Write the structure tokens for this entry.
Amino acid sequence: MPPTDTREVWLRGPLPDMPPLLQPVAHALLQAREEVSKLLHGFPETLLWEKPAGVASIGFHLQHLTGVLDRTFTYARGRQLTPAQLEALAIEGKCPPAGCLVPELVQAFHNQVEQALTQLRTTNEATLTEPRGVGRAMLPSTVLGLLVHAAEHTMRHVGQLSVTARVLKHAAEAY
């Protein structure tokens, strides 16, 4: 049997202090965090905003991963987005004038995953089917719907980030 720390997160067993019904969400977020760290360790800053074949840049994916967790977990709490959250959404995919570094963007994502895990740990399972409105239009969802969407959307972008990072690294090594 492989060592526990080399198995995917969901195969390592239950997370302490995590509600049983939210274990899969937490496992997915932890898996995403591990994969992003591994993929982007030593990733060249010069490739951060490159868009091979017109796909989204690594910089965009990192900002979006952080932002989507922040937004969906806000809606799960029954709140609407703040002006600061709306501003962060508006600049996803753009490097602010102060600059962007891969380790800083990765750390921001790590921090957001930690905040999400904290919220999951304190989520009462009895509230999971409660309705929640999404966006200005208050589109219908539930607490559980938002939390599961946050996990699946995160993993979808990690998959896209993975392919983009590998294509960019391969192209850079070829030249």
Notes: DSSP finds five helices and two strands in the chain. Residues 9 and 27 are 6 Å apart (CA to CA).
